Each structure stands twice: as structure tokens, then as C-alpha cells.
Amino acid sequence: MENDFNGTNRTGFSHMPENPEFIEEMRQQIKKNFKYAIISAPVIFIIIIAITAIVALKQGSSVGEILLVASVLLVIFIGIAFGMWISLLKDLGRLKKDAVDGTVIKNKKWHSLSDEKKSNKKKYLIVIRSDEGKKIKIKDKKAMAFHPYVNEGDKVRYHPGYPFPIEIYDKSKCGTNICVFCGAQNTLSDSKCQRCGKPVLM
Q1: Tens digits of residue pLDDT in 72-129
Q2: Which domain, by its residues, includes 140?
Q3: 104 and 70 in a common domain
Q4: Which of 53, 141, 152, 194 has its CA 20 to 30 A from that of 128?
Q5: pLDDT digits (tens, 9 = 90+) for 119-139
Q6: Is 43 contained in some domain?
């Protein structure tokens, strides 16, 4: 897999993902994202339990019924925490895999209505076909960051495990450089992300 980045016209792929310091910084970012999620999850759980208990007491539910509901919510919380831990291990493992060059074959945005049709959520999907013919799907938040800047037929590189895993080959065409750490937009002259301060691929 060739790294042929031309720094003068912003066309090509970066050498930076091969740098051990960059790899370690990416590992630390993934761990940091996990820590934030783990810290926020108990707070959300406590708030849900408190609201549930207040509502249940107002409706005349017994303490036993409230404890039963709390136990069910606790099991759900533990399941979510376990799933997040597995996701962390998978992302760290993916960092050891080689990047994949390919072509965007689908860049889609649509609206998804809830069952009650009260919420209208935007959904995003980018599909890449690797040079070996394998399809790679990037969904929702990860795809949203790149949706305005890639078109079907564009050459890209997929970086397994990255929070925002797409590197655009011709950055001069889209006029921006998306941070692979946080998904923020940066100018082509930026060496570090304007939002998170991490190095951008250049």
C-alpha cells in the first residue's frame, strides 16, 4: 500500500498513521472516549432511577416494585457497560490492522421516523469498496462528518479503529481536512485540529 501524499497540493494519503507516536496518540484517544462514556453512564443511570422512583411513588407503587424496576435497570446498565468494554477492545485491536484503500460507492442521507412519528432523526451511510472488492460500511455519526465532503467515485483510505476512519485522497477537491480523532472540519493548512488539538492527516 503506497503512501504518496503530496503536501503541496493536498492530494494523496498521509504517512502519519505509520508513525508510532501517532498510533499511541490514537490509542489514548480511544481510551479517553471510553472513560468519558463510563463516567457519564452511571450519572445517567442514577438520574433514570431517581425519576422512576419518584413517578412510581406518586402512582402508589410499593418499595418492592421500585426495587424490582431498579434491579432490571441495573442489569441493563451492566450489559451496556460490558458492551462498551468489548467495543473498546475491538477498536484497539483494529488499530493493528492495515489501512484499506478503496472507492466510495454510496454516500446516503435519509430521515428515520420513530414509531410515534414524533422524532425525525437523520441517518447517514457511506459504503466503500476496497481495491480487493470488499465492502466497508461507515454509519451515522462517523459517516455524518464526511457526508458533505465525499462523492461516489472518490478515492479514500479506511483506517480501522479510528473514531472517524476515512481519509480523503484528494483533500483539495473537498477543501477541508476532517480530523480522524474528533470529526471536526479543518482547513488544508492546519497541522493540528482546531477543536481537539490532535494532529490532522497531512
Answers
A1: 877 887 787 777 777 777 777 778 888 999 999 999 998 876 555 555 688 999 999 9
A2: 98-186
A3: no
A4: 194
A5: 568 899 999 999 999 999 999
A6: yes
